[in-house]
Specification:
mainly alpha, 2 helices, 2 strands, about 5% strand
């Protein structure tokens, strides 16, 4: 059963490790899509009541857009800089 709205969903922001995991999955999907000439202009059906059609180039474009989004989330994470001061001990 589909959700009627988003009010019943909750969650926390993804951790950096989770973001890298999402990027890894996207990279794997891109690699699989490009293997063996699968990026041809062939069309295939996507299951569902609407019988939607899409092509592999459109899927690649969507994956690249998703990858850019998640890479931006990683790049916007706060960076910790650790420095060590030198003391002049006699």
């Amino acid at each position: 059963m589909d959700l009627p709205d988003l009010s019943t969903l909750c969650g926390a922001e993804l951790t950096p490790a989770q973001l890298y995991g999402v990027l890894g999955q996207i990279d794997l999907d891109i690699a699989n899509l490009l293997r063996d000439g699968k990026l041809a202009a062939l069309r295939y059906g996507v299951g569902g009541p609407a019988g939607s059609q899409t092509d592999r180039a459109a899927n690649l474009q969507a994956l690249l857009a998703a990858r850019e989004h998640y890479q931006h989330l990683i790049n916007s994470q706060p960076v910790s800089v650790i420095t060590q001061g030198l003391t002049n001990c006699q």
